[in-house]
Amino acid sequence: MSILDLLFLNFSTVGFSLIVLPTAVWVLVDARTLRVKKGNLGGGFFDMGVAGWFFSCLLLWIVAFPAYLAKRGEYKDQSPSTMPDSSVRGHRKCPDCAELIHADARKCRFCGLVLPINQA
Questions:
Q1: Contact between residue 99 and residue 111 where contact means Cβ atoms under 8 Å apart
Q2: What is the spatial distance between Cα 118 and Cα 101, in angstroms, rounded to a whole number?
Q3: pLDDT tens sequence across 45-89
Q4: Residue 65: which of 24, 19, 25, 12 has the closest Cα?
Q5: How far apart are CA 77 and CA 35, in angstroms?
Q6: DSSP 8-state symbol, 16
Q7: Mean model confidence pLDDT for the chain
Q8: pLDDT tens, 23-56?
Q9: CA-based Rg of the chain, rounded to a whole angstrom?
Q10: CB burial class (10 A; 0-12, 13-18, 19+) of residue 68?
Q11: Coil, helix or strand for 53?
Q12: Is the CB of residue 57 less than 8 Å from the CB of residue 24?
């Protein structure tokens, strides 16, 4: 093995293990989080499911990863709210400023509105 081989370390292997594989795994996790499904965007070349995006990024990273980043905003617009229902339990929206406050609150801590006691 020559000194040049040690210095440059076969870029294709290093590039794959340090760039392509981690970003493909990130796309897999992010697409699952956004609940990406084939057909969400109404068709087209880049309208794929989670597995399609993962394998596309794994095999054709230079095209698929930028395409996923470009389409990610459209998927975010279509995905349901990422806030779980359990975090909203025991809270309500202030009728004046629409911030989440405790259900038992008598006064909004954001805008100072005095809330009626019978309001649920």
A1: yes
A2: 15
A3: 888 899 999 999 999 989 999 999 998 988 888 766 544 454 567
A4: 24
A5: 11
A6: I
A7: 80
A8: 999 999 999 998 888 887 777 788 889 999 999 9
A9: 24
A10: buried
A11: helix
A12: yes
